[in-house]
Each structure stands twice: as C-alpha cells, then as structure tokens.
Amino acid sequence: MLNAIHYILLGIISNIGQDFSFLREIKYLQESKSCIHIVNILDVYIVNSSINLVLEYCDFDLEKVIKDKNILLHASHIKCYMQMLLQGLQFLHSKFILHRDLKPANLLLNDRGIHYKININIFNYNPIIFI
Prior knowledge:
This protein has helices spanning 21-31, 62-67, 75-94; strands spanning 3-9, 41-47, 50-56, 60-61, 107-112, 115-120, 127-130. The strands form 2 sheets. The protein has a 4-stranded antiparallel β-sheet with strand order 2-3-1-7, covered by helices on one side. The protein has a 3-stranded antiparallel β-sheet with strand order 4-5-6. Helices cover 28% and strands 30% of the residues. The chain has 3 helices and 7 strands; from the N terminus they run E-H-E-E-E-H-H-E-E-E. The protein has one domain (3-124): Transferase(Phosphotransferase), domain 1 (Orthogonal Bundle). By secondary structure, the protein is of the alpha+beta class.
C-alpha cells in the first residue's frame, strides 16, 4: 500500500506566535475516517521542528484529469464524480465542517478495483514523500 507523507514546518507564523490551525485540520481528518470520500489519515508524528502526516496515497487529482486531453470524460463519469463529491460534502457538513478550498486539485482520485473513488482533501499541504 502506497502512502503520502505531508509535512508541516513549525515556526513563528506571525508576531503573535504559532499558527495552530493545522491542529484543527488534523482533528477533522481523524474524525472523518468513517467516510470513504475523505482522505484517510493513517498516522501523525513529529520529527525535529515538523509535524508529519501519513495519508492514504491517491493516484492523481481531478484537475489533472480535466486538463489531460487524452482522457475522455463521459456523462456517466461526471455523474459518478459529482455523486461521490456530494456524499463527501454531506458527511463534512453533518460534522459542521466547511471545506474552504474546494477545487478540482483537492479532489483526489484512487484506482482501487474497478472504479475510481473521489477523496476530498481537507488538508492544504503538499505531499513530499510517497512510501
């Protein structure tokens, strides 16, 4: 199984000290494990001055699929993607979580089995390592 490691470099964000908004986002990811349309967080660990998150690896995002002229999206694909997106958003909203950066680049796709699965990335940091 392939995983993505996201890192957050801890440091002084402003003149008032640390920005701890990432803790809220980690909590949201941990609370969202029961939804198949939200990226799963597998582990959190600290190394030196960074927090590292181990997340499930997703093959690509919807933005790359849309921009790739070699991929033809049929109406059935779009309907399926929209249904998965709305189910994921319904789950988030039922937990009073509002996604503030919903865009195709944050809709991650997995090829697990026969069909693709959309995962909503609620964490806004880029992966650095795939293991």
